[in-house]
Amino acid sequence: MGDDNSYDIRTILSQMREEYWQALAEEETEAKETVECLVFTLGGKRYAFETHYACEVIRVPKLVRVPAVQSLIKGIFNLRGEITAAIDIRPMLGLPQPEIGATGRILVVRGDNFTTGILAEAAHGVQGLCFENFEPFTSGSGTKADFVRGHFNLEDGNVILLDVEALLADPELLAGEA
Amino acid sequence: MANRYLEIFCREAEEHLASLQSGLLVLEKNPARTDLLHELLRNAHTLKGSARMVGLADISAITHTMEEQLKGMERGERKVDAQAIDLLLRGADAVALITSALMRGEAPELDVERFVAEYDRGELGQHLTPEPREAQPEAISDTVRADVKTLDQLVNLVGELIINKKRLESKLDRLKEVTYALPAEHAAPLAEFRGDLEEDVLYLDYLIQELHGKAMGLRMLPLRTISDGLERLVRDLAQQLGREVQFQIVGQAIEMDRVLLEGLKPILIHLLTNALSHGIESPEVRAAAGKPRRGTVLLSARHQGNSVLVEVRDDGRGMNPAGIKAAAVSRGVIDHREADGLSDEEALYLTFRPGFSTAEIVTDVSGRGVGMDVVKKNIERVKGGVTLASEFGSFTQVTLQLPLTLSVLDALIVACGGETFAIPTTYLQEIVKVRASEIDTLGSGEVIKVRGATTPLYSLSGMLGLSARRETGDLPLSAVVLKHCDQRIACVVEAHLGYSEVVVKGLGKQFRNVRFLFGATILGDGNPALILNVPDLFESGRGVQRTPLSAEEVQAAQRRLKVLVVDDSITTRTMEQSILVSQGYAVVTAVSGEDALEKSAEERFDLVISDVEMPGINGFELTRALRASEQYRETPIIIVSSLSRDEDKRQALQAGAQAYIVKGAFDQGLLLETVQMLIG
Question: So what's the ipTM on this one?
Answer without folding.
Answer: 0.77
